[in-house]
Amino acid sequence: MQTVSKKEMQLVQGGNVTTPQGFFAGGLHCGIRKTKLDLGWLYSVVPATTAGVYTTNVFQAAPLLVTQESISNNNKIQAILVNSGVANACTGEQGLTDAYEMRRVFAEEMNISELDAAIASTGLIGVPLPIDKIKAGISRIHIDENTDASKFEQAILTTDTCVKNAAVEFEVGGKKVTIGGAAKGSGMIHPNMATMLSFVTTDAAVKEQDLADALKDITNQSFNMITVDGDTSTNDMVLVMANGKANNETLTKESHDWPVFVNGLKKVCQILAKKIARDGEGATKLIEVQVNGAATDVAARAISKAIISSNLVKAAIYGADPNWGRIVTAIGYSGQQVNPNNVKVAIGSITVVDNGLPLSFDEEKAKDYLSNETINIYVDLKQGNTTATGWGCDLSYDYVKINASYRT
Amino acid sequence: MQTVSKKEMQLVQGGNVTTPQGFFAGGLHCGIRKTKLDLGWLYSVVPATTAGVYTTNVFQAAPLLVTQESISNNNKIQAILVNSGVANACTGEQGLTDAYEMRRVFAEEMNISELDAAIASTGLIGVPLPIDKIKAGISRIHIDENTDASKFEQAILTTDTCVKNAAVEFEVGGKKVTIGGAAKGSGMIHPNMATMLSFVTTDAAVKEQDLADALKDITNQSFNMITVDGDTSTNDMVLVMANGKANNETLTKESHDWPVFVNGLKKVCQILAKKIARDGEGATKLIEVQVNGAATDVAARAISKAIISSNLVKAAIYGADPNWGRIVTAIGYSGQQVNPNNVKVAIGSITVVDNGLPLSFDEEKAKDYLSNETINIYVDLKQGNTTATGWGCDLSYDYVKINASYRT
Q1: Would residue B3 count as lying in a domain?
Q2: Is B291 on the interface with A (CB under 8 A)?
Q3: Which domain range does residue B140 map to?
Q4: Confidence of residue A407 (pLDDT cuts 50, 70, 90)
């Protein structure tokens, strides 16, 4: 028996979606994209209790509808297939037919029930899914010890510049449990789910409704707190699969170690969210905005989002300009009740505004700080005890370059 | 007696805030900015019925508080002083003291009551108002036939690249009436008033409450329907002064020609709003988004704003890329009830989506169209009869350049 003396959560260096027991993943090139991998798959040796959250965009893409159908069947999924390059969004009846066909052929290849298969797509909107290429690709999937999670991580990317993964381990009820994850997302990233896909795996056994509740809550503290450009896409999805291979007693909200599990899940989701924000199109810096002293959770989150969403703040940080006036302005138009005469703003350790008034500070020191790759902005509203953190990135020439010529 | 046979509203070529009878305007350099004009004034020969709308930002700058006090006295203003370079926002008690002093000295120089004077400021936030320079500047104001409205237009600018003016004339109750306007605004421009100042003059006599109601309504169809970057500033203000020098019977909502007057006021405000959008920081194109067939006014406006606010749409138009997927995506996350299967989208005369599905179109023709300086996007939701139009600009390298180094 594997004994774990430590109770503390640990990051697993190099960990990924297959770090938890009983998961395999891989990726291949099926020809949707020119040369990059474009078809990724994730497989659990047994059907896993699965929860999902989905885009709020009314133009929800076909694969999301199909995946929701699968999950709603019995809250179990055994395998996920993801293609990049084409989003299968705004593709009408044909898109839905293609999505069903993609699920059917994949399930057949994996030898599982159709309703135990999930699918996801990301890429161009309004282009028919190249279903024949995908079917040919599916026939080349082999699950064995040589499968490679890094290929899955690559196959789900679009304009991302790097793969995004994370894993943590900890102990619940005397059993070692691992949570791993992979994500993609670079443009169309904004609170309420964006062109963002995230797949989280765990070998913990978790009660289905409690897993769903935890995911929803954690999404609001991770994926829904990042922004790249304010655009919320048609294809966003976060899935978490819990296959129980850790042999722990099934976790529920009543479990003694429930907070430990939730903390681990939050950690993986936040790491992935930050990696997405940092890899925002054209980004050179990660911006982390912590709002403290808010009267309500809604206010803390809205103000954090207003700041990380401000083009003017983002451009100033790209230029290493400590232009706190733009931060204050964003707080002011967030739509939240704020007492201007209370507000404190710090850029890193440099307090630039207190009680609503500017403080004199060393501009050179501030510029130096803003040349770092991670920029922390702290706001204290002095109205209550609620806090929220959001993540974003700077706005660079390259953002414009990438998005002025995405299709050409 | 001046007789006007035409009833139709006419644009006055080269018209400005002094085109209506009884208004004078000028500008000078008082030393806040390096060399550009930075102090503008506008004067009516008699106190004018005045209405205003102001920023919704909770960090409302000191000059707005002082101006609101003046207007609320008896709804009359005779003269307005505007400085650029420093916004007098986030300047606390001292800022308010400076704003009162600015009004007091200006009123004294113009030989009018303090409560008949309004002030406005635009520029850097959090910097003390250089009140001594402004006072010295005020002492150099001379109202005579040599005053020059173009100097007023220049003195109120910040990062704008051009002056913004408009004038129309028409007939009400047999009298010729003129409406003129000047505006500034380039960054921090977003619905709900931005770093945007607009001053409208008319020689019509108008009942004060009806003028205020008309301005509020028209602002929602003009200045509140433009966006450059989504940021709403601390200093936004629109004032309209009606001095009655046209000798018309005082216009009220009940007047036969009330719609004619409202139409004229709307025209001036929309021309100014479009000029602001076109001169957005780094903009190379004006984007006009018309949403038709909406179920409600709120929906039409929200969807128009979502599209003109989308960085991805703006960058695509900069790159002349007919990426309609981004337009559809923006419609989808606007927060409005939309039936995806109804939606029609046209870029100029090229319908790219209908009934929620992409149509094949000539990409080269679309790219050609998107190389124009004015881009029209039409959306038909096929849900009702409501329409709204919004204006914005493309997102260019220069936007980033300007805003990465505004203060340095």
Answers
A1: no
A2: no
A3: 10-278
A4: low
Choose the final residue of a domain: A278, A313, A334. A278
C-beta separation of B274 from B225 below 8 A: no
> Would you list the DSSP string of B132-155?
HHHHHHHTT---STT--HHHHHHH
- Please name the residue of chain B whose CA is at the shortest distance from the CA of residue A337: B58
Asked whether residue A319 falls in the same domain as residue A371, the answer is yes
The total number of structural domains that make up chain B: 2
Complex ipTM value: 0.77
Average pLDDT for residues A132-150, to the nearest whole number?
A: 92
Overall average pLDDT of the A333-342 stretch: 90
State which of A234, A250, A278 marks the end of a domain: A278
pLDDT tens-digit map of B321-353: 998 988 998 998 888 999 989 999 999 999 999
Residue A128 lies in a domain: yes
Please report the DSSP string for A173-215 in residue order. Answer: TTEEEEEEEEEEE-SS--SS--SEEEEEEE-S-B-HHHHHHHH
B281 is in an annotated binding site: yes
Among all residues of chain A, which has the CA nearest to that of B336?
Answer: A58
- Would residue A389 show up in a list of annotated catalytic residues for this protein? no
Confidence at A177, pLDDT banded by 50, 70, 90: very high
Nearest to A338 among B58, B127, B395 (CB): B58
Side by side, the strands of the sheet bearing A374-380 are A357-358, A350-354, A344-347, A374-380, A286-294, A386-393
Q: Which of B229, B316, B329 sits opposite A311 (nearest CB)?
A: B229
Q: What is the mean pLDDT of residues A235-260?
A: 96
Q: Are residues A83 and A113 in the same domain?
A: yes
**Mean pLDDT confidence for A163-192:** 85
**Residue A177: partners with Cβ closer than 8 Å, 6 or more residues away:** A20, A169, A170, A171, A202, A203, A204, A246, A248, A261, A264
Contact criterion met (CB below 8 Å) for B143 and B44: no
Q: Is residue A4 part of a domain?
A: no
Amino acid at A327: I
Look up the CATH number of the domain holding residue B114.
3.60.70.12
User: Does one domain contain both B262 and B311?
Assistant: no
